Amino acid sequence: MPSSAKPKRAATGAAVLSQDVTGAIRAAVLDELADKGFAAMSMDSVARRAGVGKSAIYRRWTSKDAMTVEVLSDLIVVGDGEPRDTGSLRGDVRQSLDEIVSWMADDRIGRIYVDILANGMRNAALAEPLTTRIGVPRRARGTAILDRAAKRGELNTPVDREVVLDLIAAMVFWRVVARREQVSPAYLDEVTTLVVGVITGRF
């Protein structure tokens, strides 16, 4: 006797969200942030730029804050967990600098990052996820570099880790965002030498 059971319908929800649509929305978020800034950006303007309905955005994110933080964190936090072990403190520091340069190479990022930081100072609801989704993971990757250096015996003197973690990113950020200068491999080599010298107590 033939079965009268109806075929199962495909699952709906996040599992079947179109990656093409998600990619278009993410690109639109970056363009809107760069062109208008966080305060002027809206879900409507992102939907128009992405060429999608606003409902497509709300199926992925519950708010403008959540959408912005996730898009930026996926770009700025390179990979999950600890960074690749290069085998030396110098190699790890240079790799970290290369990561920073990779996401700052996009001309939009300088404008976006400064604007987002300013808005975070005025908006606690935005500041908290910026810290937990971007700030904390980035610093955790830096801490892993210092932990590995200690295990290798590369740290000759006690070092203030908070100062070092600030230092790793600060010079590249200042050069690219504040001064709008290019970052060359030679410049990164010099920064690496300086950072390693501070960490190991040679400077």
Structure description:
There is one protein chain. This protein is an all-alpha fold. It has two domains: 47 residues, Arc Repressor Mutant, subunit A (Orthogonal Bundle); 129 residues, Tetracycline Repressor, domain 2, CATH 1.10.357.10. The protein contains nine helices and no strands. Helix 4 runs parallel beside helix 7 and helix 5 runs parallel beside helix 8. It is elongated. The chain starts with 18 loop residues before the first helix and ends with a helix. This is TetR family transcriptional regulator. Pfam families: TetR_C_11, TetR_N. InterPro entries: Homeodomain-like_sf, HTH-type_TetR-like_transc_reg, HTH_TetR, Tet_transcr_reg_TetR-rel_C_sf, TetR_C. One of its GO terms (molecular function) is DNA-binding transcription factor activity. It comes from Umezawaea tangerina.
Helix content: 55-70%
- N-to-C order of helices and strands: HHHHHHHHH
CATH superfamily of the largest domain: Tetracycline Repressor, domain 2
Mean pLDDT over the residues: 87
The CATH topology of the largest domain comes to Tetracycline Repressor, domain 2
CATH top-level class of the largest domain: Mainly Alpha
Major sheet: none
> Overall 3D geometry?
elongated
Distance between the termini: 85 Å
Précis, in short:
This protein is 68% helix and 0% strand. It has helices at 19-36, 43-50, 54-58, 64-76, 89-104, 107-122, 124-152, 161-178, 185-200. Residues 1-15 have low confidence and may be disordered.
